[in-house]
Fold Restriction endonuclease.
Amino acid sequence: MIDTSVRRWLPTWIGGRRTPQPFRATSSRVSRLAARYDAEVDAALQRLWPKARIYHDREFTRDRADFLLVVRGRGVMIETKVKSDPGLFRGSTLPPLLDRLQRDGRRLVVLVNQGDPAPARDLISTKLGDRGRIVVWSGPHHDQELHQAVEALLHQTTRHA
């Protein structure tokens, strides 16, 4: 029987690389933060739009938003992003999603838990124009900003090409 520790070290003996342990710990920590953030966002959407239909895409993909919020028959995509530090949010993972939504003519609100979203705001504006918003949302004290962003998109009267 092969010991699991031997299987773990075997790739390094034959020239392969191992992922450093601190990176794996950080990655799983961020995953837990993202899952908790998604649950908090889901609760906020239910609290702010109690009669809305909320669909949560639980599969990880870069070209689909995490949530679809349907209010009064109109949909807004919601993408959540979790940062582990309060620095700039550049939106480097957003282009596949923005490209797809640009083709589909859909509306998008990106929620980031912390940081300065100015660089990502420029990216979203370039790709989606007035059909995209970004909001720093870290809890109920930011509900007003979330509500305003979604309602502004819901009130757009025309579907953009």
Remarks:
- The mean pLDDT is 84.
- The first strand starts at residue 53 and ends at 56.
- The chain has one domain: 21-154.
- The helical segments are 4-13, 21-48, 95-104, 118-128, 143-154.
